[in-house]
């Protein structure tokens, strides 16, 4: 086991953080001191002078004060992303991703409608893993990415405007489960394919499971093009990137290539797959791929010649049956895969992986943690926090002790805390970076049972806030937060690392900005193009007259420059509502197929004369 | 002015509440004592012995404890209802109403899809006013209702299951703005029509605003049939029912019947309309109506003969320009309409209204409150709380003092508190009943500006929790709560008055319950009907094979009996996801138009073997 002195030195070297500003840093200081104290808790050697107790954890955010962190939570089959403030656990905003959302006009204006249409035209998706782009292993505030497990897609959210700006339909994947950045600089976003299906899935090989395949896809974060894919054996689910630009890890189940649960459960082991990305890139460069579905597909199955040489492109590491989560430690030393059906986690030494011929030798620890270990997060002080789905607990354990325990059978478990109930993912502040903050952890519990007022058979989930900044006092459950179905995973980012815009920059979109002087109505061959501004408390035209059957396009600009003064163009009985934030222009096209008077109005409460902000759409009968 | 002794006696008579249970009642006791104290604050005559200070207001709800109240907030143009817990301000659940929502499968299974289709087929609505059914002027826990301003509809939410179970497309209304129960026993739900349009709106009278009309609609809460409508002059917006089964009030603007803002603003006054419901029922009974759009339409315009006699069916009360909200005091004595563009509220004496020939004589108070008064709530201790949109404040005022002030010019204003920013509606606990709880008030502020971490140009609104239980210490701002666009109004109901079910009762729906022995696949003429159960962790069929082009119906039952164990049937690339709560059966029908293998799966994380809960849909090529 490493010595106490090693740890104490590590902490001090890692972050000289004992003289900073308000709440976050007060607590971070507490956390760092706590790190030393925790070892005291383990060993009894150190005094706990200077400890900040968990009872001091200030999770209150009084009216008018800001949170310390943004948390990006996936919305599961609601198809959206939700942004919480941490530690208040307040939901700051929703970001619709895979489905239309009317208050935001997402999927209503022509641009966002076309994006959803081009990405397959589905009305929903199953968003699991929101990951935020990094540069040099730290959040850079540019994008968040999230997968669609239901339709094999990956979406990008622009963090300047907190809106979805790209969705790619990933070829050759039916269920894109994991989503994860290639680190340190987000060279790729990886989509981890779960469902094995025939390739192409066009009716061939329907009942020939041996011919089914799944892939991982490397997506360029700038263009959202799929650069290449790698074919593998077995299903995959979660993934995480190493910190050093070489390895990407994915867990998987069903190494049996079965199709029934009993077939999928017959083997005693499954794999963690370690993708050697530079080796894959070399293979692509060398033309060692087949083009399938429009992308280079590299064969990374066990029998592939690309896995036969000195530097296999995919290393298959045997772990206990059906590992679920995998995450790389902040220092980049280990990939830790959770056992799910097995009470252990597998600690994979990443450096050893590169040096050994037998990848199984890279497993340097198998701590026994409890029932149903699913996912692991980090505090940057050498601890791992793993959800125990079946035990309904979070277990805190010492990573180095777990490595040592292989020989010494020492129990690396530091502490367990009950959560309510059945946690899936958990996330600690900046856990996916090289420098976790070590203060807050959120457990995403799938069931809430009786924790909240009864709201009928569809109960909320329960996102619980746990203070982990005081190793001496231990983990402290601070808040229960009901969550609409179905958050799967999250990323927590320090507030100062994201700098969203307050108003739109017209340079950032293609639509024509319509100022006061630009109002216009152009009619041509059954098409009407209306250009108008919106401003408290009117639209550029009081009346717009069209003919029954006309195809009508409205280009509307909100010419306000005051932040938070939104307008919309809502048209009754035409299913139209486009959102217009300050300086934003959107277009909407529809057919005016029913004669009559329709009061177009602004659906945002924009001024005292909000109700009066409306204009008439007059649709004249065709005859 | 009433005497101090009168008030003290009123409080004691109204509710002998000085020896009850935990938080709510502790605070209610404080509130009641505070009522006496408040007068002390006004007059200096009473001591403040026994006061519970606002600082004692316990808005924390520790992990595992329940809230005291359900709050039902509308979601504006998101088209949904949100349920908060009060005082935690946590969002407990969303209830999709006017648009599809995939996590809940709402608008995905055949039953809910058909309901949305029958109600016009729109993908969104503009939900403003959630009102909860009452019996004997108290919440009965049966239903909530909410309007759709965008498409002239009214929806009902079943509070056994917290789900939308009926939507009616209101004839002759383009924008149904107000929604409100006829009290004391919810005989009707009123839909208040805002937009004036030709009737019928089929292309006739396009640019003849004098012929435009709007109506209120009386909807039967059991059948959701529109029983009758009343034609009126001018636009209408908000409404509220008297407590006694006779009057219904609606505010309105545009008594000018104009179509531009300047036309709508030319008059100095507009109306509060008082509908004499039994008189209207008599007219309907007597056949004094025209049938339009399938419903009896009674003429309630000013020139109508039904308004010429001794008992006019609609009384037009002149108030300052563009009144906005109207609400009836808990004792049923007054209807208070807020001035919006005028700094006053109009206090209408309801008893006087019945006794006078000139309805304007029923106005017994016009307190000057501040800029932009919009809506008023009550604490049951004689105070009104009015939002001041332009001043960004809530003003607390004494109702009786305002009535007296007509003669004495005494200032009825007790206190103002800043809110952040620009409040629309506000709601106090059970304010719409005869017995408000007097502890919590929520101000629904339209702008949040810089109150939260920046999330881009579309900022959240801000629902602020204010403690009003201590008249002596004054109003206390307790919490800021970011809200996704765009809550308009709310109702707050004591937790014990709603008793939702934990699991479904199959007697409550028509679909066939599919138990273990009932699995079946029936094929006939290009139609395939699959009946299967779902249970941790499998579906009734491992494989389902159909032919390309088949119309496929799945009837699926979740046979679990354990609360909170939900399943779903998600079908990749088929845009299918139906939610199945315990004991719930749903059906979904789609065309299998693409050959291939599709992994149907459960999108709720239902067990440790959740990932393995999936079956194959095999679509064989047609040839």
UniProtKB/TrEMBL annotation, chains A, B:
UniProt pathway: Nitrogen metabolism; nitrate reduction (denitrification); dinitrogen from nitrate: step 4/4
Alphabetical list of InterPro entries matching this protein: CcO_II-like_C (IPR002429), Cupredoxin (IPR008972), EfeO_Cupredoxin (IPR028096), N2O_reductase_N (IPR011045), NO_Rdtase (IPR023644), Nos_propeller (IPR041114), NOS_propeller_2 (IPR041142), NosZ/Cyto_c_oxidase_sub2 (IPR051403)
UniProt entry tagged with the keyword Metal-binding: yes
Gene3D superfamilies, per the entry: Cupredoxins - blue copper proteins (2.60.40.420), YVTN repeat-like/Quinoprotein amine dehydrogenase (2.130.10.10)
Pfam families attached to this UniProt entry: Cupredoxin_1, nos_propeller, nos_propeller_2, TAT_signal
GO cellular component annotations of the record: membrane; periplasmic space
EC annotation from Swiss-Prot or TrEMBL: 1.7.2.4
Gene Ontology biological-process annotations: denitrification pathway
Domain Cytochrome oxidase subunit II copper A binding stretches: 523-623
Known function: Nitrous-oxide reductase is part of a bacterial respiratory system which is activated under anaerobic conditions in the presence of nitrate or nitrous oxide.
SUBUNIT field: Homodimer.
Protein name, per record: Nitrous-oxide reductase
Taxonomic source organism: Natronococcus jeotgali DSM 18795
């Amino acid at each position: 086991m490493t010595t106490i002195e090693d740890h104490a030195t590590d902490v001090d070297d890692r972050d000289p953080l004992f003289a900073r500003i308000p709440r976050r840093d007060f607590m971070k200081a507490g956390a760092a001191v706590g790190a030393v104290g925790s070892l005291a808790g383990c060993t009894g050697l150190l005094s706990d002078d200077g400890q900040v107790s968990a009872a001091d954890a200030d999770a209150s955010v009084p009216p008018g004060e800001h949170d310390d962190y943004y948390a990006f939570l996936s919305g599961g089959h609601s198809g959206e992303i939700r942004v919480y403030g941490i530690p208040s656990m307040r939901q700051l905003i929703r970001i619709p991703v895979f489905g239309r959302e009317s208050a935001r006009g997402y999927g209503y204006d022509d641009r966002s409608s076309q994006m959803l249409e081009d990405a397959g035209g589905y009305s929903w998706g199953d968003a699991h893993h929101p990951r935020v782009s990094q540069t040099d292993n730290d959040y850079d505030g540019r994008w968040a990415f999230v997968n669609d497990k239901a339709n094999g897609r990956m979406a990008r959210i622009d963090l300047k405007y907190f809106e979805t700006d790209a969705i790619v339909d990933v070829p050759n994947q039916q269920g894109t489960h994991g989503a994860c950045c290639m680190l340190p600089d987000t060279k790729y976003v990886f989509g981890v394919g779960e469902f094995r299906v025939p390739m192409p899935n066009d009716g061939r090989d329907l009942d020939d499971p041996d011919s089914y395949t799944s892939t991982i896809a490397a997506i360029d974060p700038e263009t959202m093009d799929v650069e290449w894919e790698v074919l593998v054996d077995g299903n995959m689910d979660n993934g995480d990137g190493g910190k050093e630009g070489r390895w990407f890890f994915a867990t998987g189940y069903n190494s049996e290539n079965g199709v029934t649960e009993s077939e999928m459960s017959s083997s005693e082991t499954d794999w963690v797959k370690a993708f050697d990305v530079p080796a894959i890139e070399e293979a692509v460069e060398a033309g060692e791929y087949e083009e399938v579905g429009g992308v280079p597909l590299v064969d990374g199955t066990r029998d592939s010649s690309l896995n036969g040489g000195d530097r296999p492109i995919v290393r298959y590491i045997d772990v206990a049956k059906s590992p679920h989560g995998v995450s790389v430690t902040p220092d980049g030393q280990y990939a830790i895969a959770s056992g799910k059906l097995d009470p252990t986690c597998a600690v994979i030494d990443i450096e050893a992986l590169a040096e050994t011929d037998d990848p199984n030798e890279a497993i340097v620890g198998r701590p026994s943690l409890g029932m149903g270990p699913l996912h692991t997060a980090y505090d940057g002080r050498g601890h791992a926090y793993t959800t125990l789905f079946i035990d309904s607990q979070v277990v805190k354990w010492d990573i180095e002790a777990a490595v040592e325990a292989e020989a010494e059978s020492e129990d690396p478990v530091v502490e367990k805390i009950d959560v309510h109930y059945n946690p899936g993912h958990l996330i600690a502040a900046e856990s996916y970076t090289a420098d976790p903050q070590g203060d807050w952890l959120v457990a995403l519990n799938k069931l809430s049972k009786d924790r909240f007022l009864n709201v009928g058979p569809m109960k909320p989930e329960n996102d619980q806030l746990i203070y982990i900044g005081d190793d001496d006092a231990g983990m402290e459950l601070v808040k229960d937060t009901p969550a609409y179905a179905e958050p799967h995973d999250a990323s927590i980012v320090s507030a100062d690392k994201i700098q969203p815009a307050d108003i739109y920059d017209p340079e950032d979109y293609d639509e024509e900005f319509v100022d006061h002087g630009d109002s216009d109505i152009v009619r041509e061959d059954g098409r009407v193009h209306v250009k108008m501004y919106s401003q408290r408390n009117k639209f550029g035209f009081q009346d717009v007259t069209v003919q029954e059957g006309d195809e009508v396009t409205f280009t509307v600009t909100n010419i306000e420059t005051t932040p938070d003064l939104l307008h919309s163009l809502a048209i009754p009985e035409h299913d139209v509502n486009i959102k217009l934030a300050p300086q934003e222009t959107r277009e909407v096209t529809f057919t005016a197929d029913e004669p009559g008077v329709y009061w177009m109005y602004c659906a945002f409460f924009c001024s005292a004369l909000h109700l009066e902000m409306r204009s008439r759409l007059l649709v004249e009968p065709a005859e």
